[in-house]
Design a protein that fits this description.
single chain, about 140 residues, two-stranded antiparallel ribbon, 2 strands, about 60% helix
């Protein structure tokens, strides 16, 4: 017997994952990370100012460089995932710090670029401060 919260999909099999949530967390096929980031900018430009959008662009550039040519198991660029997370959060009208955290959330685990971060103006203390503000 399927679990109580199971959902039957069109193929007849059951899943406990809501198909709407699954669809929202999967990148549309055939779009590049840059195209998805443009969709994020379009969404966020409805409520962020120019300085905040510039910060978002810096975070995306850093994440793109940090992930380089990494690919997900599906074969798509790894940086697609953080962009999709940021799109979901922008749809909820989260502030720029949260959107930047979404874009950068896998960079620390994957690659150590401390000198490059300093050269680009990303200081660890700045990111920690933004994290503390989010926790409050």
């Amino acid at each position: 017997m399927p679990p109580k919260n199971a959902i039957q999909n069109l193929s007849g099999s059951t899943t406990s994952i809501d198909p709407f949530i699954a669809a929202a967390t999967t990148a549309p096929q055939g779009f590049s990370a840059e195209e998805r980031f443009e969709a994020l900018l379009e969404l966020a430009s409805g409520y962020l100012n120019e300085d905040e959008l510039a910060l978002l662009k810096r975070a995306f550039a850093f994440a793109s460089e940090a992930h380089g040519d990494q690919k997900r198991k599906s074969g798509e660029p790894f940086v697609i995932h953080p962009v999709e997370v940021a799109i979901i959060l922008a749809d909820l009208r989260m502030d720029v710090e949260v959107l930047c955290a979404a874009l950068l959330h896998d960079t620390g685990r994957r690659i150590v670029l401390a000198a490059d971060r300093r050269a680009r103006g990303w200081r660890h203390e700045d990111l920690e401060d933004r994290g503390r503000r989010f926790e409050r």
